[in-house]
Specification:
The protein has 4 helices and 7 strands; from the N terminus they run E-H-E-H-E-E-E-H-E-E-H. With 133 residues, it is α/β, with parallel strands linked by helices.
Length: 133
């Protein structure tokens, strides 16, 4: 059976953070097509035209910050799982993010294993949905 690759939208303005996310995605051994956006406006263009299975979302972007970032994504794709990341965790009360139904919150730097596990939860094939080899 030929499956479509999973799609991940990485919304991040730090080149080094993007490189780290891509390394984590490669390590999962899941067929993934990444889309990259360095601002909310770029992310909006991608969300309007592409099927996205997961969003990795920095909370501080050049054109938006905090709940505004999440609301921008939710307005275009209400059901997509979101993993939030930030280098400024002290600026955000994670309880205030609960209404946005995010799949995880990670403060940079974070443990790669924990982040990879969270990504894998959303992208790995569900048990019983694939054929035995």
């Amino acid at each position: 059976m030929n499956r479509k690759p999973k799609t991940v939208l990485i919304v991040e303005d730090s080149v080094s953070a993007i490189a780290g996310y891509l390394l984590v995605l490669e390590s999962l051994e899941i067929d993934i097509t990444p889309f990259l956006a360095s601002s909310l406006s770029q992310a909006a263009q991608i969300l309007k035209t592409e099927r996205v299975d997961l969003v990795i979302l920095d909370l501080v972007l050049p054109d938006a910050c905090g709940s505004e970032v999440i609301e921008g994504v939710r307005a275009l794709n209400p059901g997509v799982p979101i993993l939030l990341v930030t280098g400024y965790p002290e600026k955000f009360d994670t309880r205030s993010l609960e209404p946005y139904r995010v799949g995880g919150f990670f403060a940079k730097p974070f443990r790669v294993e924990a982040f990879g596990g969270a990504v894998g939860r959303f992208l790995a094939p569900r048990a019983g949905r694939c054929c035995a080899s």
